[in-house]
Amino acid sequence: MSDLRIETIKADITRLTTDAIVNAANSSLLGGGGVDGAIHRAAGPALLAHCRTIGGCPTGEARITPAFALPSKWIIHTVGPVWQGGNKGEADLLAGCYRSCLVLAAAHSIRTIAFPAISCGVYGYPAATACRIAVRTIKMFETNNTTLERVLLVAYDDHTASLMKQALDGAD
Ligand code: AR6
Question: For a substitution probing ligand 1, which of 122, 157, 158, 164 has the most ligand atoms within 8 Å of its CB?
Answer without folding.
Answer: 122
